[in-house]
Design a protein that fits this description.
The protein is α/β, with parallel strands linked by helices. The protein has helices at residues 5-8, 21-24, 29-36, 52-63, 77-85, 108-119, 133-136, 139-142, 155-173, 183-190, 195-208, 220-226, 239-253, 257-269, 274-288, 295-309, 315-327, 333-346, 406-422, and strands at residues 42-45, 66-71, 96-101, 123-129, 146-149, 177-179, 211-212, 215-218. Helix 5 (77-85) packs parallel to helix 6 (108-119), helix 11 (195-208) crosses helix 12 (220-226) and helix 13 (239-253) runs parallel beside helix 15 (274-288). The termini are far apart.
């Protein structure tokens, strides 16, 4: 059975790896570590097709160590023990490198089985994961490893891999391969930063291309046919899902409607309607808040419309909600106020509720002194009467600070006005 093109073109040296300049460039930390000849335990974190397995194989080969490969989705404790048993054989004399793909799927006991041999250096662990290792890998492994993040490969770097693939196909099939204008860019931009996927796309498009006396030509139509919507990495359970939502909120908070629309589009294109709706709701209070109190009503109406419409029409009211919030004044005073109040509660900074604020509607409340002396604010000018509402222990506490926006400053001026007038009102 013929190997896929991506396997045939797997780089043999670090120089052949495309992308990852931040760790594999001339001054990159990982390159310098490999050059030192000492290979520490490492965790490679990043999306598929970014070179994690390839780099692990190169490192093992350059270190002169036996390489074992396991996948966390299928590996058992017995598999790990078999590798440990090989340490006393000829293969294990120079030490071994264990490449453990998808390490997040190993349970705690399986990971603990490795610890003793990681500490004495008999096994060098290079683990890879597409999930954030700080969430999914046990601390005992993390504390003994260095984490390197592999990033989605830029289109410009993927173009180099695509051209290399075309040259390999020409050599293998002894035929000329032409790329129609725009094909190179189309493949490089539609693979989601996944080099392996880009090579698979080239191979499929090549096999589907018509043969002519001049060779084969991959057309823009061919490239479009093999470019899947799924190339955009987005899973409702993975880091990218949360990264997109985080970027959406931070873009709204930063009043950049273009960026916010971009991240909204990424979520919607992946078919995720509920998550951005929920996030937009909280933004209306957390980031716009009291600077534009009516914003939450607008956003809620847009979300209700979106949920009733469904995709693709839902994109329109959601875009309206995003633009309204991006262009609105911002205030996080409500969030800051409730967080300050919660901090007091959690630290035990409170005391009994003043007796005159307690419920006095039941029989016997008067005998207990409940609701005695309470002044009904609506009976006074401006519907305000100065009386203590906080418990005695924190009666001077101030949680809410008026924001510097027009709406909250107007509220502040009104508050100062009624306080000044109340100071002239006789108190009982």
């Amino acid at each position: 059975m013929a190997s896929p093109l991506a396997d045939k073109l797997r780089p043999k040296t670090l120089e052949q790896v495309v992308g990852q300049e931040h760790i594999l460039g001339e001054t990159g930390m990982l390159r310098r570590i490999v050059a030192s000849g000492q290979v520490p335990n490492m965790i490679f974190y990043g999306p598929p097709g970014t070179g994690k397995t390839t780099v692990a194989e190169i490192i093992a080969r350059q270190a002169g160590k036996k390489l074992y490969r396991l996948n966390g989705t299928t590996a058992s404790t017995a598999d790990i023990k078999d590798i440990i048993a090989s340490l006393n054989t000829f293969d294990g004399l120079a030490g071994v490198v264990l490449y453990l793909d998808e390490i997040q799927y190993l349970n705690k006991k399986q990971q603990q089985t490795l610890l003793e041999f990681l500490e004495n250096g008999q096994i060098t662990l290079i683990a890879s994961t597409t999930e954030n290792p700080y969430f999914y890998i046990y601390n005992a492994i993390l504390s003994r490893s260095t984490v390197f993040e592999f990033r989605a490969v830029a289109p410009q770097a993927i173009e180099k891999a695509v051209l290399r693939a075309v040259a390999a196909l020409e050599e293998e099939y002894q035929t000329a391969v032409a790329l129609e204008d725009g094909v190179l860019e189309a493949i490089a931009h539609s693979c989601g930063g996944d080099v392996r996927k880009s090579l698979n796309m080239v191979e499929v498009a090549f096999l589907a291309a018509k043969t002519t006396p001049q060779g084969r030509c991959i057309t823009l139509e061919d490239a479009g046919a093999v470019a899947e919507k799924g190339s955009m990495r987005y899973d409702r359970e993975d880091d990218v899902h949360y990264d997109v939502l985080s970027a959406l909120q931070k873009s709204v908070r930063g009043s950049d409607e273009n960026a916010a629309l971009h991240y909204l589009a990424r979520a919607l294109e992946a078919g995720d309607l509920l998550s951005p709706c929920r996030r937009l709701l909280v933004m209306a209070s957390e980031d716009v808040g009291l600077a534009y109190p009516q914003c939450i009503c607008i956003v809620k109406a847009c979300i209700d419309s979106a949920m009733q419409l469904g995709l693709p029409e839902a994109r329109i009211p959601l875009a309206q909600a995003v633009i309204v919030m991006c262009t609105a004044p911002k205030s996080n005073s409500a969030e800051a106020a409730i967080d300050a109040a919660l901090a007091d509660i959690r630290q035990g900074n409170y005391s009994d509720i003043p007796a005159y604020l307690k419920d006095g509607s039941y029989s016997g409340a008067q005998k207990l002194g409940r609701a005695q002396g309470y002044q009904y604010p609506h009976n006074y000018p401006n519907h305000y009467y100065p009386q203590q509402y906080l418990p005695d222990a924190i009666k001077e506490r101030v949680y809410y600070q008026f924001g510097d926006n027009k709406t909250e400053q107007a509220a502040k001026q009104y508050r100062e006005k009624i306080l000044a007038e109340a100071s002239k009102t006789p108190r009982f």
